[in-house]
Amino acid sequence: MLEKTLKKENILKKNKTIPEQIWQFFCSVKLTVYTLVVLAVTSIIGTVILQNGTPPQYLNLYGQTVYNIIKIFNFDDMYQAWWFLALIVILCINIVVCSIERLSFTWKIIFPQKITFNPDRFRKLKNLETVQVNKDVRSLSNDYERFLSKKVGRVIKQEAQTSTVMYAEKGRWTRIGVYVVHASILLLLIGALIGSLFGFKAHLQLDEGQTSDTAFIAKKRLPIKLDFSIRCNDFDVKFYDTGAPEEFKSNLTIINNGNALFTRDIRVNHPLRYKGINIFQASYGTAQPDSVVIDMIRLSDKQVASKTLKIGEEIQLPDDQGMFKLEGFLPHFDFKGHNLGEAFVGRITPKDGAAFQIGLPVKFPTFDRMRKGAIAVVIKDFEQKHYTGLQITKDPGIWYVYSGFILLIIGCWITFFMSHQSYFIEVESSGDNDSTVSISGTTNRNNQGMKLKIQKIVTTLKDK
Amino acid sequence: MNSSFALSLATFIYALASVFYIGSFAFKKQSLSKLGFMVLVLGFLSNTTGIILRWIESYQMGYGHAPFANMYESLVFFSWTVAILYIFVELKYKESIIGVFASPLVFLAIAYASLSPDISSKISPLIPALKSNWLIAHVITCFLGYAGFAVAFGFSLMYFIKPKTSGETSLFAKLPSWEMIDELTYQMVVFGFLFLTIGIITGAVWANSAWGKYWTWDPKETWSLITWLVYAIFMHLRMMKGWYGKNLAWVSILGFLAVLFTYFGVNYVLSGLHSYA
Ligand code: HEM
Fold first, then answer.
1. CA distance A272 to chain B (A)
2. Quick one: pLDDT at residue A33?
3. Closest residue (by CA) to atom 33 of ligand 1?
4. Does residue A444 sit at the B interface (CB-CB below 8 Å)?
């Protein structure tokens, strides 16, 4: 109905200025549908093409030609691409313009000067039901008036000589529902915008015992300095008997200007929030230990000498075989393309000759024998130490987004399950103590539901 | 009785219900569809029992989580939601023949869960990220949404089966009126849309509490948004552009394909945080 009225108005006005034409462009529901279709279709691209990969990854996967196309349209980061954001902006303007255009009409319906009704219109409705009742008009109309005012709302009653018509309505305000839905979508997008402009998502890796105040933005390795420092006191991981991790948690202390403020455990799904910054347990791994016990085995007679070393420490090998330096720790030791797991790296400087590096995988104690030196080095034991992977985020737009969520649900509920309903009952005398009762109703949505409601009312009233 | 027995029984009973409904449609026997309804309710009870038992068993095994954690459990729950939604529709609208479009979906989902070799019915422990009450809210609402769309899909098929003018002798004479079909499809889409909306929102709130980001454009999220957009388009076409009948039914079918891809395609074809199994 609204659509038609608007069209007519626009047709009357032939010569439109350019701003008027622009307004008109954004005012059409056709634009809405097209934009939504384009958004839905293009969104697929980002689920098929790798997102935020490195150039070699793309070249490997798709080749040079396709990669050039990907680059032109930013398909490698397409949900941030200019054209995708432009589509969202068009949608927003569309919602705003349409709502402004229509709200004044809807407003007049929601707050009418005076509620009137046209009996003839109700008499012609398709859902009109007619029954005969063995009672006189007066007593029936009193009964029905009570029924309507209890079930629907205030009743408008018009009495004539031999008949009475009654009208009642409810839910005028529910016509605002769609506007709530559309406003909530705007609110969501505004929240997302605020989040992407003023928020961040960064990563921080802390060894047990380590303190830091600087996290790094995931993609760009950009440092983010926090107003406080975080110390990881302890990290714990529990496993199921299947070997899958059951739970991991970090014990963190928040430190401000050298003062420890408080200490708390965080687990997956149970973050810590402080000063608008959220700290999440994201991952974990094995960190470089402080000290390591190594065995030095003389290959000729298998005689063993043990020694405890710190990382970076250098010692004399037995039999005057030169110096050994424990250089560092690797969580994943790559040997000819195989991942041999946790390993240490050492450097041997023979008495006469060039220094060389050796790898000491923890799980393969005989590995260094393959070198066929006089002395083989084996990792005997080391103190297991973890690092914790923390996700550090800030999102000042989150409350806009959450308000949008709540409004969206409320708006959908109103739009879908509530409606503006009007009921009409006419009682006409059809004999001394007989009446003909006609009942019908209108609604702004769900006509079939209205039909069922009318039928139900008929059965209730007949039983009275 | 254990959960796998109850669920096998449910599969069998659902198969029987589908047979009765199809029979009532093919032979125009109203009584068969009444029988089909009662059998469907029985299957639903068995399905419910199976889910509750599985929940209890997971506690007995020491894992202790709601039975919504892998593909098998989600399919079983999908059958359950479609069944309860359909039972509700039949009770409300009193159109029993339309069960022929809903009961096979209920049966197919649960049968696929038990018969597909790719789907393990083992009760397995939860990874830490899935341990959240939001999991329960998220799964239940998403699946109610999917159920609404599934039933809407079933009803949309009527547009292609029911002849324009139905004579008394026609095989399809018992199908509801066009207005009723239109209303039923629309009501199911609306139901699905509301719950998919809540499902996406609970998922976002959960992601925000687990990873600190309510939306990351991972494939499952993106596909659920695509599904949501298709049904938003459906509603705008219907309400603002006056689409109806077969044209609109096509949109509903397209929407259900998007649901299927969100549900299965993303797990099998694409990868991301959500892939179960
Ligand atoms: C996805 C973003 C959406 C956009 C861009 C959008 C846009 C629009 C526009 C421009 C109109 C016409 C103008 C108006 O009456 O305000 C409209 C109408 C409408 N929209 Fe949306 N909409 C969106 C989502 C939704 C959703 C999720 C719903 C579901 C509740 C919805 C329900 C409606 C309804 C019921 C109407 C008809 C209003 C009437 O009866 O006058 N829209 N939409």
1. 10
2. 93
3. A178
4. no
Residue with tokens 């009446």: A435
Token pair belonging to A339: 């991942």
Highest mean pLDDT (candidates A214-218, A401-405, A445-449): A401-405
C-alpha neighbours within 13 Å on the C-beta side of residue B11 = 16
pLDDT at B197: 98
> Whose Cα sits closest to atom 30 in ligand 1?
A412
First-residue to last-residue Cα distance in chain B: 26
Banded model confidence at residue A1, pLDDT cuts 50, 70, 90: very low
Domains of chain A: 2-106 (no CATH), 119-171+419-462 (3.30.310), 186-288+387-396 (no CATH), 291-382 (no CATH)
Secondary structure (3-state) at B65: coil
Distance CA A146, CA A246 (A): 63
Strand partners of residue A296: A305, A377
- Shortest distance, CA A247 to any CA of chain B (angstroms): 5
**β-bridge pairing A334-335 and A323-330:** unpaired
Q: Whole-angstrom Cα distance, residue B217 to residue B215?
A: 6
Q: Is the pLDDT of residue A7 over 70?
A: no
* Structure letter (DSSP) for residue A317: P
Tokens of A141: 């109309």
In this predicted model, what pLDDT tens digit does every residue of A55-100 receive, in sequence order? 888 898 888 999 999 999 999 888 989 999 999 999 999 999 999 9
Output the pLDDT for position A409: 97
Rg (CA), chain A: 38
